[in-house]
Amino acid sequence: MKARSSVAACLAAGWVCAAQAQAPNYAIDPTHTFVNYENGHFGTTTNRGRFSTKDGTLFFDRANRQGKVEIVIDISSVNTGVDMLNRQIQGKDFFNVADFPTATFVSDRFEFDGDKVSQVHGQLTLKGQTHPVVLKAQKFNCYINPLFRREVCGGDFETEILRSQWGVMWGLQFGFEDKVKLIIQVEAIKMQ
């Protein structure tokens, strides 16, 4: 059975939270949380890259099938494996990291299949523009980390977006596709 939760997210950095929001009980692990992308290149190959995350928090209540999340993505960290392309993507014609160094994803609804997250509905803010996206869970699990003996929850999530919705237009006229597949791996560590 699918369940819904209301929108709310809190950053540990001191943002004020709505009265109905539960405090985050997990912290996003930036060493295990990345946003990967795939974008068609002239109808032949697939251009791939990865962004690191800077910060994030999660409220997760498996028993009551509720969740909220906020993740801050470091756009300047883009790594395609090609330095010249990294600089192009960071530049004014593409992501303009000088003015928009980060993107954020804030959930407004988790869906569950049993006790596992199946979809996360939220808002992606990129280049100062915000639009809804739905992340579909490819896998999701919680476990006790043997190194620091705390629960870790996470999974692999995917979605497809049209980058032009966020004003990312560079290359559309000469071979880079509008459609972008996002593959997100997320792990969050339970706070003590």
Overview in brief:
The chain has 192 residues and is mainly beta. Helices cover 4% and strands 56% of the residues. Strands 1, 2, 3, 4, 5, 6, 7, 8 and 9 form a nine-stranded antiparallel β-sheet that branches.
Percentage of residues in DSSP E strands: over 45%
Poorly predicted parts: 1-20
Spatial extent as radius of gyration: 17 Å
Q: State the helix count.
A: 1
User: How many independent structural domains?
Assistant: 1
Helices and strands, in order, run as EEEEHEEEEE
CATH secondary-structure class: Mainly Beta
Helix content: under 10%
The geometry reads as elongated
CATH architectural name: Beta Barrel
Whole-number mean pLDDT? 88
Number of strands: 9
Q: What is the CATH third-level topology name?
A: Lipocalin
| Biggest sheet layout | 9 strands, antiparallel
User: Could you say which structural class the secondary elements and strand pairing correspond to?
Assistant: mainly beta
CATH superfamily: Lipid/polyisoprenoid-binding, YceI-like
N- and C-termini, Cα separation: 30 Å
Describe this structure in words.
The protein is mainly beta. The chain has a single domain, classed as Lipid/polyisoprenoid-binding, YceI-like (Lipocalin, Beta Barrel). The chain is built from one helix and nine strands; from the N terminus they run E-E-E-E-H-E-E-E-E-E. The protein has one helix at residues 83-90; strands at 26-28, 34-41, 45-61, 66-79, 102-113, 116-126, 129-144, 151-162, 176-190. Strands 1, 2, 3, 4, 5, 6, 7, 8 and 9 form a nine-stranded antiparallel β-sheet that branches. A hairpin with a 2-residue loop joins strand 5 (102-113) and strand 6. It is elongated, with a radius of gyration of 17 Å.
